């Protein structure tokens, strides 16, 4: 049953299966290892008098009347007044007309949901149950998939798979005090107590980290015997600096020297280039490409989005002229064929592209250097696939997501690390503040006044469109609201579902000043460079990690003008304010990354998380990383029968593009 298609579960037809596939859930096994992204604690009931706007909580109330139904703009609203015996609370359900049959006057129920206290005290779209539900898992969703559907599907899967085979040796479980796999999987989906849930999360996180570090260890050993390219860099730096329109910082010069010395060695370079947002990593990477091209080799730069790839292409044209080639998914066949021919013949010395570079028909003549930008956006296998298109090419991976030292020492076991720890002179730190819900209108009025004097603004939303499955501000809805709220202000809308041509047209309009405010999603997280944009507004800031918020904030503050970042959240919880305070207190990306690690764990810093899986490790558990690293080293050194099974399992997880790792 474990390997059965997801349609094997009751209620999952072809349509539902297709929606689950978007979450990476193809089989029953995928579903069991699609871990909750959070838990709602409904283990105790709050008094109505203690409810505050944005709280997500449970209340025990008695219905005072029959539910009423009203309609506006095609949306139905079922509401009923209830009381906990002291204070009143209105329960509201949008587009759920069946709710009026579930509650009647005098019924006592436990209602669980989010509080809206802007006009009276209401609970929006609450679930109803006779008793307190306890810890309720919150799953990642896609369009058409609801929490209720996921919870029911998981319930069926747990019943259908009574026992999971545990590949972890008993001695290893005992050494690191890990729960058996079956118990861990059951507890993450049906937690009884918080402390047991944490043990279950720790076991599954240990598996994720161990499998990744086993691959790192194997790659490190495989690379020791490889011969690479000994590049000659004499005179390259001098010629390159003459083409730059600015003087590099001392940190950039130091890192370029590190890369030149590394590329001169006869073993393949495998280096991580770290630097905060706006520190000048791209200029350093282009220098590495110049070294490769000066030696008659091709260099490839892979970016995660067409927006970023296009920007790199424009920068590379100034350095390489007609010798640069751009490959992306939106090309017409004739254009693509011409680009492929240039890459295969070697007439394109510098090649820049998106995931399109990974396609099988992309063949290089003499690939000597691979650069991946925003490397956390690419999976382990994808980074290996592009490198496999050459014979032991040098590899440079760039990251503007600062990686805490705790992670870097362990996860970068097969990488040398260069850090650009200096910003260009003249940059002012972005002033960041939290905007309360009641001041939201004032803030948008401020953006309109700034637009009149030529200052542009980004407004980032967590979702493209409204959905019943998730609550929050969507880009499409906010765009329509602002068109009414801010007459005379030129607005533009940008999100990932637009065509490549439309996205580029919108970005160009914003870049040239034809739009005052760009309402968008995280599609602008990397690659959009508009020095005149000095204001960043992030709606639903509580839905983003600190590192991602820092990335978004990095879109402004790219000139000598003072820039501002406004964080908005409908969550009124103290924990939200405490978490976001890190952004307000500092602009140091490494400090923020450390705080993010403490609060959320590393998540998918390194593309460790596979589709359909949960977080890499629990927040703040650096000890787990150290233990997994120790276990990985011991397993690879011993290589007994049981250890070999673990190694084979790890390699299967990352099999695409890992043909450079010997299995014997």
Q: What structural class results from the helix and strand content?
A: alpha/beta
pLDDT under 50 segments (min length 5)?
A: 604-620, 656-664
Average residue pLDDT: 86
CA gyration radius, whole angstroms: 27 Å
What share of residues is helical? 25-40%
Strand order of the largest sheet: 11-12-10-13-14-9-15
Largest sheet: 7 strands, parallel
Percent of sequence in beta strands: 15-25%
Please count the beta strands (DSSP E, at least 2 residues each): 21
- End-to-end C-alpha gap: 32 Å
H/I helix tally:
21
Shape: globular
Structure explained in plain terms:
This protein is an alpha/beta fold and 664 residues long. Helices cover 38% and strands 18% of the residues. The chain is built from 21 helices and 21 strands. It has a 7-stranded parallel sheet, with helices on both faces. Strands 16-21-20-17-19-18 form a 6-stranded parallel sheet, with helices on both faces. The protein has a 5-stranded mixed β-barrel with strand order 2-4-5-7-6. The radius of gyration is 27 Å and the shape is globular. Residues 604-620 and 656-664 have low confidence and may be disordered.
């Amino acid at each position: 049953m474990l390997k059965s298609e997801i349609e094997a579960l009751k209620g999952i037809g072809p349509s539902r299966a297709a929606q689950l596939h978007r979450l990476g859930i193809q089989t029953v096994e995928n579903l069991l290892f699609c871990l909750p992204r959070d838990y709602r604690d409904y283990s105790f009931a709050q008094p109505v008098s203690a409810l505050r706007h944005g709280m997500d909580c449970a209340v025990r109330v008695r219905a005072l009347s029959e539910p009423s139904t009203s309609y506006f703009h095609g949306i139905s609203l079922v509401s009923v007044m209830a009381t906990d015996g002291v204070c009143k609370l209105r329960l509201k359900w949008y587009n759920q007309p069946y709710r009026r049959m579930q509650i009647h006057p005098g019924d006592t129920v436990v209602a669980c949901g989010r509080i809206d206290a802007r006009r009276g005290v209401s609970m929006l779209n609450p679930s109803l149950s006779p008793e307190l539900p306890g810890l309720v898992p919150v799953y990642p969703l896609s369009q058409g998939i609801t929490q209720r559907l996921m919870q029911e599907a998981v319930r069926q899967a747990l019943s259908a798979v009574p026992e999971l085979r545990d590949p972890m040796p008993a001695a290893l479980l005992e050494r690191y005090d890990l729960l058996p796999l079956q118990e861990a999987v059951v507890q993450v989906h049906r937690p009884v107590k918080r402390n047991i849930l944490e043990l279950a999360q720790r076991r599954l996180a240990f598996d994720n980290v161990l499998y990744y570090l086993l691959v790192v260890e194997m790659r490190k050993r495989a690379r020791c015997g490889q011969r690479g390219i000994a590049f000659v860099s004499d005179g390259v730096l001098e010629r390159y600096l003459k083409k730059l329109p600015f003087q590099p910082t001392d940190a950039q010069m130091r890192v370029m020297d590190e890369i030149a010395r590394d590329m001169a060695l006869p073993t393949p370079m495998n280096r991580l280039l770290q630097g905060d947002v706006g520190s000048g990593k791209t200029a350093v990477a282009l220098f590495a490409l110049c070294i490769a091209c000066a030696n008659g080799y091709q260099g490839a730069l892979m970016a995660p989005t067409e927006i970023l790839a296009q920007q790199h292409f424009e920068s590379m044209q100034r350095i390489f002229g007609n010798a640069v080639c751009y490959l992306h998914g939106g090309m017409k066949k004739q254009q693509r064929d011409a680009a492929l021919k240039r890459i295969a013949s070697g007439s394109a010395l510098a090649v820049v592209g998106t995931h399109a570079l990974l396609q099988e028909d992309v063949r290089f003549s003499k690939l000597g250097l691979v650069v991946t930008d925003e490397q956390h956006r690419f999976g382990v296998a994808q980074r290996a696939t592009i490198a496999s298109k050459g014979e032991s090419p040098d590899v440079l991976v760039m990251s503007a997501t600062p990686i805490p030292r705790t992670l870097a020492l362990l996860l970068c076991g097969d990488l040398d690390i260069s850090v650009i720890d200096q910003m260009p002179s003249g940059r002012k730190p972005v002033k960041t503040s939290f905007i309360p819900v009641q001041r939201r209108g004032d803030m948008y009025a401020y953006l309109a006044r700034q637009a009149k004097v030529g200052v542009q603004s980004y407004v980032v939303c967590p979702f493209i469109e409204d959905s019943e499955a998730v609550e929050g501000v969507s880009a499409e809805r906010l765009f329509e609201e602002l068109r009414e709220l801010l007459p005379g202000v030129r607005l533009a809308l940008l999100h990932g579902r637009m065509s490549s041509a439309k996205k580029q047209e919108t970005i160009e309009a914003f870049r040239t000043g034809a739009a005052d405010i760009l309402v968008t999603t995280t599609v602008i997280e990397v690659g959009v460079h508009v020095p005149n944009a000095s204001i960043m507004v992030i709606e639903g800031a509580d839905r983003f990690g600190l590192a991602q918020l820092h990335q978004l904030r990095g879109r402004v503050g790219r000139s000598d003008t003072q820039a501002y970042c406004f964080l908005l959240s409908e969550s009124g919880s103290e924990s939200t304010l405490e978490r976001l305070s890190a952004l307000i207190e500092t602009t140091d990306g490494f400090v923020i990354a450390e705080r993010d690690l403490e609060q959320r764990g590393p998540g998918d810093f390194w593309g460790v998380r596979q589709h359909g899986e949960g977080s890499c490790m629990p927040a703040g558990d650096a000890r787990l990383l150290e233990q997994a690293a120790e276990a990985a080293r011991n397993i690879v050194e011993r290589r007994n029968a049981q250890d070999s099974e673990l190694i084979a399992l790890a390699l299967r997880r990352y099999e695409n593009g890992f043909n450079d790792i010997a299995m014997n």
